[in-house]
Amino acid sequence: MAAVFFVLGGFLLFVTAIRTHAVYHAILDTLPPQFQDDWTSRYAFSVYALEPTTPLDVQVSYIKAMGLSCPAFLSISLGFFAAGNVVLGCGGLLAFAVASYSALQGWNTYKSNRDRPVDRGEETGQ
User: Fold this and answer.
1) What is the pLDDT of residues 32-43, one digit of tens each?
2) How far apart are alpha carbons 29 and 72 in whole angstroms?
3) What is the number of alpha carbons within 13 Å of residue 7 lying toward its C-beta?
4) Comparing C-alpha atoms, which of 77, 97, 74, 72 is closest to residue 9?
5) Over the stretch 17-66, which tens digit does the pLDDT of each residue have?
6) Nearest one of 108, 99, 18, 96 to 59, comparing CA atoms
7) Between the CA of residue 82 and those of 52, 69, 76, what are the distances in Å?
8) Can you tell me the distance from the alpha carbon of 126 to that of 124, in angstroms, rounded to the nearest whole number?
């Protein structure tokens, strides 16, 4: 049974990584010049992915990726518990809690970006 949890968790983490990488490449050109190289952009990625200037469809993709990490960590944690390793199972639960908190904060940021008033001058081209 533990193997099923590990395979499911690994698959979900793989999908999360693919989605996150797609978002990364979508916003890489919009980052300030000092964050456009591979080494420093990883520090700015999570901040700029949910900036109000980032398109909402890119933000949704990032939120979905964050949301997928939650069941992935929960599944891995359950795999460790099923295998009898309580310490790593608790570590997985901690990772699940951190990922859930981060996803909830990201969702709230996205929601405030989505609901912000739109500047009418930008829509009409004035």
Assistant:
1) 877 777 777 777
2) 30
3) 4
4) 72
5) 999 999 988 888 888 877 777 777 777 788 888 999 888 999 999 999 99
6) 108
7) 42, 20, 10
8) 6
